[in-house]
Amino acid sequence: MKYIFANWKMYLDNEESIALASKIAEEEYDTNALRVAIFPTMLSLSAVVDLVTDTEIAVGAQHVAWSPAGAYTGAVSATFVHAAGASYTLVGHSERRHVFGETNADVRQRLEAAIEAGLTPILCVGETQQDLDEGKRKYRLQRQLQKALEGLKLGEQGLFVAYEPVWAISKGGNGVPCTPEDAADVHQWLAVEIASYGFTDVPLLYGGSVNAQNVVSYLELEGVDGVLVGSASCTYEKFSPLLTAAVTM
Ligand code: PGA
């Protein structure tokens, strides 16, 4: 099974999200070989769940709060997201960490809240360009993993980890992807690190400037179970060929 997860970030408004989800819902692909999940904005989560309800497409949130309910203006809980019919949530996406200042401690709380609510969390980890330049890639990833995973109690719904080097993530489609060789090395190393916390069978996704042209070069790697796609998942013209490439590989 390979996973194609579409992170729409804050690219699409409600009408655009509904339109794109409707088109993706009509795509035909081997659901035994490929699992597709869409991560729209909170505004559109319920509508997208309703649209894909009779399909194999799953829906997730991009972010959840750490408390199930309460006086948290502007926040949406994992419990609400689960009740709305979503099955996944991203946790610790690099834009949450670096634009909104979320710490490893925040990430841990959100991870626990997601598990408690019955969602499958996709823990996102990745080093910055500065980390890379300073030879701190593994140090950064180790810290993110340790704070997130040490002593964590997983639910039946399991856990995914997405390796998204911050320097490879596109801003509107112009990122420099991590080479497949490099991604393969990191993924192999990550699997061992994750297993050291007692977690095996954790699907590992690669994310960062994945598109229709390069998606197969990641999916065919041993140790890469799928991809987390941002900008190239936000239009049908980009996402449909990406799905086709994945299906026909
Ligand atoms: P990108 O984003 O595909 O636009 O690089 C990936 C992500 O941030 O999840």
Automatic annotation (TrEMBL):
It comes from the Bacteria. InterPro entries: Aldolase_TIM (IPR013785), TIM_sf (IPR035990), Triosephosphate_isomerase (IPR000652). GO terms for biological process: gluconeogenesis; glyceraldehyde-3-phosphate biosynthetic process; glycerol catabolic process; glycolytic process. GO terms for molecular function: triose-phosphate isomerase activity. Homodimer. It catalyses: D-glyceraldehyde 3-phosphate = dihydroxyacetone phosphate. Gene3D superfamilies: Aldolase class I (3.20.20.70). Its EC number is 5.3.1.1. Belongs to the triosephosphate isomerase family. PROSITE patterns: TIM_2. Its main location: cytoplasm. It is an enzyme of class 5 (isomerase). Pathway: Carbohydrate degradation; glycolysis; D-glyceraldehyde 3-phosphate from glycerone phosphate: step 1/1; Carbohydrate biosynthesis; gluconeogenesis. GO terms for cellular component: cytosol. It is found in: Cytoplasm. Keywords: Cytoplasm, Gluconeogenesis, Glycolysis, Isomerase. This is Triosephosphate isomerase. It comes from Candidatus Magasanikbacteria bacterium CG10_big_fil_rev_8_21_14_0_10_43_6.
